[in-house]
Amino acid sequence: MKQERKRLFIDIKTSAREREKLINLAVENGCNTVVFSLKDPFFKSKSSKCLKLTKRYALNIEAGGRDLPLLLPKRLFLFQPGLFRMEHGRRKMDRHFCPTNPKTISIIAQRAHFFISRAMEKMDAPRIFHLLPEEGHENTWCQCPACRAFRPAEQYLIAVNTAADVLAQFDSGAQLVYIDFDREPDAARVKPRDNLLVIG
Fold first, then answer.
1. Per-residue pLDDT tens digits for 37-55
2. For the domain 7-199, what is the CATH code?
3. 9: closest CA among 50, 42, 37, 49?
């Protein structure tokens, strides 16, 4: 029988001491899974108290969270603004990006490859990743001529599908969690990949 995963999401800014307290408290309350940001030092560490704790309690390790912005570094905006979302005719560096730009998709795939490959070393099957949009800005997407053909939920799904394709290359049994906030699913033109796991 498949065990239900009860998750503790660890904020990347949480100190080492606070992490220990949180994990101990979570385990006492029936938690069996810890989720670290794709960028978290946990995935680079060879030895840490946090790593020892997760092993001692035989916790499932998952990666991700509100990590979608990690896949397109803001520093690229200065020289390649076309990678980023358009609002009222102007490119914006904040929030999300332009998912119909092939260069954007290429960078997202490269970055997803980097973060997924690094995280996988600390994860056991079945591996689960999370790739969620910026909280409170789920509908803040690109309004360029090409992107106007897609609703915000579809633009988000284009990006998530790209990462899901990369994940499938590493592990065909791994899953990527995403939020389904599409209010018109019957009209969707973008279909989720088979390795996506929906919440919401």
1. 999 999 998 878 899 999 9
2. 3.20.20.80
3. 37
H helix runs in the chain, sequence order: 16-28, 49-56, 102-120, 152-170
Tell me the domain boundaries of the chain: 7-199
Q: Please state, as a whole number, how many other Cβ atoms lie within 10 Å of the Cβ of residue 119.
A: 24
pLDDT in tens, 54-67: 999 999 999 999 99
pLDDT of residue 3: 76
Give 35's Cβ-side CA count (13 Å radius): 19
Q: How confident is the model at residue 199 (pLDDT cuts 50, 70, 90)?
A: confident
Nearest partner of 38 among 11, 72, 65, judged by Cα: 65
